[in-house]
Design goal:
The complex is a heterodimer.
Chain A: H1 2-8, E1 11-16, H2 22-30, E2 34-37, E3 46-52, E4 58-63, H3 75-84, E5 95-101, H4 110-117, E6 122-127, H5 129-135, E7 138-139, H6 141-148, E8 152-154, H7 163-175, H8 191-204, H9 209-218, H10 227-239, H11 244-266, E9 267-268, H12 277-285, H13 290-309, H14 311-332, H15 336-353, H16 356-372, H17 374-388, H18 395-402, H19 406-411, H20 419-428, H21 437-448, E10 453-454, E11 458-459, H22 460-487, E12 497-499, H23 507-523, H24 525-541, H25 547-562, H26 566-580, H27 582-594, H28 601-609, H29 616-626, H30 634-639, H31 642-651, H32 665-677, H33 682-692, H34 695-720
Parallel strand pairs in A: 1-4, 1-5, 5-6, 6-8
Antiparallel strand pairs in A: 2-3, 3-4, 7-9, 10-11
Chain B: E1 16-22, H1 25-34, E2 41-47, E3 53-58, E4 61-66, H2 67-71, E5 73-75
Antiparallel strand pairs in B: 1-2, 1-5, 2-3, 3-4
The chains are: A alpha/beta, B alpha+beta.
Bound molecules: guanosine-5'-triphosphate.
Chain lengths: ~725, ~80
């Protein structure tokens, strides 16, 4: 296993306050050699990467979430505290790089002093030295190093300054860990705290006093404590009359009192902060009226991007795969293996890659908004609105990311401190139409909605497309509101968010973030799509016993009786073969359940297969309707990708018993609603399970969304038919 | 009797005042970690578009607070 080797490498953690520039330095040190870590047996994802020292030796670099202190209020901050207090943790670092924003050093050292008291080997990297020198800030690193008792290096993650020195210092630290013997705590424990840590050392043999103190503060939720240990800690807290919150504040203030003078002595700062560009921009961007208007304009731009701009590369990818599979078919000749390649594997791969332009474009826009610092403003502006619906201002980021893909969107909810608000965000995010729904929408809308102008300006098809998004967002909010009414817990909830300085995006960060998300999609959802597509091919190619060959024989006979020409015969035979296959049988048995929604058994198969990943829908229909008709009109193929062909084939489809056309406006709308509301993505369910800690919420989400989709689709079908 | 303190919602736009203390313990913990300390100067920059959230400035950093959060920071008159 590759991980075995990784485990033996020294582990270096990156810590610091939010916006200190951790990710920038992390990206700089690891480049593309990063992964969202699945260390064995770890339930939370943390980003790790491989870094290399000038000497050639390597280390695993761990990017911890940004936090202000080891007294956390959100689950990603809790993660930092949980790892740092548990030397047995897989992520427990051998050394730390502490990234501090040197332009605000007096508020970036609190966490550092806490980590020092845990006796962890730390290097202080004073980041943003480029901005600091522009502002006329002068740092005496030697003095700082002397006073704090650790190596201090001025760096710039953006300008890549001094990184080599940071690395060699770090390597030195990893090689000579004996320094740890002389432990001089930064914070002097109070008498009460001393008694307490003595008691904890005695009972749980935790030697480091500050670690003991932290464990007592957090014992209710720390995951590595055993039940019996928690009881011991409970007893200590009660007998010593331990006031956790008060003590935390006192300790924090005491630390400030100690390090503020140190900062003042070693940093020369110009007297006042002038009014900056950020203030001028915010006067417009967070303006009472202008702010929301600009936000809506930005969202429309994003919408435009997914609807319009990504169409070209998508068509190109589909056409490319079409040509490739034709070439494969002609090169290999007929046979089940060729079919497996073209209809199973290539069709599946095309189904995956076709989403890449959209996902990439969306995450490009989102990560630019995040990089420049705009997202924090959105959180500020819409916090109140989101709270009405049981969420938090921070949920906006999840919902916006959800328009690309629900998986990273749900992971981004970790910054929400309040569990209920976070849970609601996780539960409703999948309602936002993700990019996987777009091809489904496009096919169905193209089929049922005429391309006419409404009111002179709007294209009817775009209007319906837009309404599908509106439906998703609206349902998300309604569901949030309903869950809020239902859950009602009283747990403190915070906004308290720092609004960072506006900055030009650092493109390296942007590209890496887009790359990371695309890779995660292709590797995660992609695998499922590919497997489903192969299974589907097999199910529609083979049938029970001799069913397929029997069906072929009778179909040929009937075709001769009906005097069909050769193409018609071919299609007719394929139809019959499909009906006789495993997939056909399954779809048929499934038909009564979906008939009230206006669907036939073919749609049934498509629905069934797309429960793993909804993007399979179009692929399935393409497989179901296209089989054997590959020799169709030349014009058909050159003009457009499979979609147009698929549409024309779907148009002539009729119910086998009544002879009514299947794809009426009512059916198409009903399907649209179904796809907008249903939970059809294994990857999302898996990530919901991981982020909520149990299958309970994932199952509930699945059932609730499916029922909503079913009845929503049913209602729409009744209204329009 | 005259109140001996104010809170952020009492401040006018661009007005500033020194903090005395924070009444809510959990919030105090969070805000002190972010650098809102007793005795620092808080400037009210603006309120949010919908409902009341406050955009404040503390020693050159900018923080957004909810109404309840803003109201729990006691300021000198
Ligand atoms: N001028 C300057 N800007 C920097 C430097 N390093 C990072 N930045 C910018 O600072 C902002 C925050 O950087 P990130 O790397 O996202 O910060 P972070 O610490 O990972 O933030 P969280 O992910 O919120 O914890 C980004 O806009 C960066 O481009 C630097 O050395 N100089």
């Amino acid at each position: 296993m590759m991980w075995k080797e990784e485990d033996r490498l020294p582990k270096v953690g990156m810590v610091g306050n939010p916006n200190a520039g951790k990710s920038t330095v992390f990206n700089l040190l690891t480049g593309l050699r990063q992964h969202t870590g699945n260390f064995p047996g770890v339930t939370v994802e943390i980003k790790t990467g491989r870094m290399r020292f000038p000497s050639g030796s390597e280390a695993t670099l761990i990017d911890f979430p940004g936090t202000y202190s080891l007294y956390p209020t959100s689950s990603d901050e809790k993660l930092v505290a949980a790892v740092m207090t548990n030397p047995a943790d897989t992520f427990f670092p051998d050394a730390l790089i502490y990234i501090a924003d040197v332009t605000h050093l007096e508020r970036h050292l609190l966490l550092l002093t806490q980590l020092l008291d845990l006796n962890l080997p730390v290097i202080l990297a004073l980041n943003m030295s480029d901005t600091a020198s522009e502002m006329g800030i002068k740092v005496n690193a030697a003095k700082l190093s002397d006073q704090l008792g650790l190596p201090v290096i001025s760096i710039s993650g953006r300008k890549e300054d001094n990184i080599q020195r940071l690395l060699s210092e770090l390597e030195k630290m990893l090689k000579a860990p004996e320094k740890a013997s002389e432990y001089k705590p930064f914070y002097k424990l109070t008498d009460q705290e001393k008694q307490i840590t003595d008691a904890i050392r005695h009972n749980l043999s935790i030697e480091n006093p500050y670690r003991a103190l932290l464990i007592l503060h957090h014992h209710q939720w720390l995951p590595f404590l055993k039940k019996q240990q928690k009881e011991v800690l409970d007893a200590i807290a009660i007998t010593k009359d331990f006031q956790s919150l008060r003590t935390q504040v006192d300790e924090t203030l005491d630390r400030y009192d100690k390090f503020m003078p140190i900062v003042r002595e070693s940093i020369h700062q110009p007297p006042a902060f002038p009014s900056t560009t950020t203030d001028k921009l915010d006067a417009v961007l967070t303006h009472r009226i202008g702010g929301p208007v600009i936000f809506i304009a930005v969202m429309l731009l994003i919408f435009q991007a997914i609807f319009d701009w990504s169409g070209y590369p998508m068509d190109a990818i589909e056409n490319g795969f079409g040509l490739l599979s034709e070439w494969v078919a002609s090169a290999l000749g007929e046979g089940w293996f060729t079919e497996l390649l073209t209809d199973g594997i290539l069709a599946g791969m095309s189904g995956i890659l076709v989403f890449v332009p959209q996902i990439a474009l969306l995450f490009l826009l989102i990560s630019i908004l995040e990089e420049v610092g705009y997202m924090a403003r959105v959180v500020f502006m819409f916090d109140k609105t989101m709270r009405r619906f049981g969420m938090n201002g921070r949920s906006v980021i999840s919902l916006i990311s959800g328009s690309a893909c629900a998986v990273p969107a749900i992971m981004s909810s970790r910054t929400i401190g309040n569990w209920q608000e976070r849970l609601i965000t996780i539960m409703v995010t999948p309602f936002v139409s993700c990019s996987a729904r777009i091809p489904v929408y496009l096919v169905l809308i193209g089929l049922a909605v005429p391309a006419v102008k409404v009111g002179g300006i709007f294209n009817a098809q775009s209007l319906v497309f837009g309404s599908m998004y509106a439906l998703g967002v609206l349902t998300a909010f309604l569901a949030g509101w309903a869950m809020k009414k239902w859950l009602r817990t009283r747990e403190p909830s915070f906004l308290a968010i720092e609004l960072p300085e506006y900055r030009m995006p650092h493109w390296k960060n942007v590209w890496l973030s887009v790359w990371e998300k695309v890779v995660a999609f292709v590797a995660g959802a992609g695998k499922i799509i590919l497997v489903v597509s192969i299974v589907l091919w097999a199910m529609s190619r083979f049938g029970p016993g001799n069913a397929i060959s029997d069906a072929t024989l009778t179909a040929h006979q009937e075709a001769r009786e009906m005097r069909l020409d050769s193409t018609q015969t071919e299609d007719f035979v394929q139809q019959r073969r499909l009906e006789a296959s495993f997939a056909g049988q399954m779809g048929k048995s499934f038909e009564p359940l979906i008939r009230p929604l206006g669907y036939d058994w073919k749609i049934g198969i498509a629905l069934l297969t797309s429960f793993a990943a909804r993007e399979v829908f179009t692929g399935t229909l393409a497989v179901l309707y296209n089989m054997g008709s590959e020799e169709g009109d030349i014009n058909d193929r050159t003009e457009n990708a499979a979609k147009a062909t698929l549409r024309s084939k779907m148009k002539v489809e009729t119910f086998s018993d009544t002879g009514q056309p299947v794809y009426t406006l009512a059916t198409a709308l009903s399907l649209l609603v179904f796809y907008a509301l249903a939970m059809q993505c294994f990857s999302t369910l898996a990530v919901v399970r991981r982020e909520t800690g149990s299958w309970k919420w994932a199952a509930m989400q699945f059932v609730a969304m499916s029922l909503l989709a079913y009845f929503g689709a049913w209602a729409v079908y009744r209204i329009f038919s | 009797m005259q109140r001996r303190y104010r809170t952020i919602p009492d401040l006018k736009t661009n007005e500033s005042a020194r903090t005395i203390s924070i009444t809510d313990a959990t919030l105090a913990c969070k805000l002190t970690a972010m650098g809102v300390l007793p005795g620092t100067r808080i400037e009210m920059v603006r309120t949010s578009p919908f409902g009341k959230a406050y955009y404040i400035k503390v020693d050159g950093i900018r923080i957004a607070l909810r109404e309840e959060e803003a109201a729990s920071i006691l300021l000198e008159v």
